[in-house]
Design goal:
4-stranded mixed β-sheet; about 20% helix
């Protein structure tokens, strides 16, 4: 009888160990640093700078704070700047002040401004996104002719 109790206890403890391992892996997978981002549009101001519309998606269960953005080694202006004034029918467009937080499994679409010195965008864009949980770098190519537009197209908004 004591052998049967020992075997049953062994199976219960093995099951508990496997269950604990599964839960640990599932929690780690949900909380690990997973972020996706893309450049939606680039609006340039001739010989002055350019605005970039970003979409950042947090695919983890922990909030992430965006602490800095670089495009082609140009650092984003961290201030909240007004792009266009609002009217009764259209809200005003503004850049996002950095740093800002994106909640768990959340997304944020925003504009940022970059100063430039006659940058050539033909090689594409190297984007470095600095967050409270790590740094990611991606290379974006110019998708089509409408990807880079003059600022007047944004002001028509």
């Amino acid at each position: 009888m004591s052998i049967a109790i020992s075997i049953i206890s062994l199976f219960i403890s093995l099951f508990a160990m496997l269950f604990n391992g599964f839960n640990t892996y599932r929690n780690w997978n949900r909380q690990r640093f997973k972020i996706r981002y893309e450049m939606k549009k680039v609006y340039f101001v001739e010989n002055v700078g350019f605005y970039v519309k970003f979409l950042v998606i947090n695919d983890s269960s922990e909030p992430i704070t965006i602490t800095g953005i670089k495009v082609n080694d140009k650092i984003a202006d961290s201030r909240n700047l007004t792009i266009t004034d609002g009217t009764k029918t259209k809200p005003s467009l503004e850049t996002k002040a950095i740093p800002f937080e994106i909640g768990s499994f959340g997304a944020e679409e925003f504009y940022t401004y970059f100063y430039r010195n006659n940058e050539n965008f033909s090689k594409g864009f190297v984007v470095e996104l600095r967050t409270s949980r790590g740094v990611t770098t991606n290379h974006f190519k110019k998708r089509d002719n409408n990807f880079i537009e003059p600022i007047v197209n944004l002001l028509k908004y």
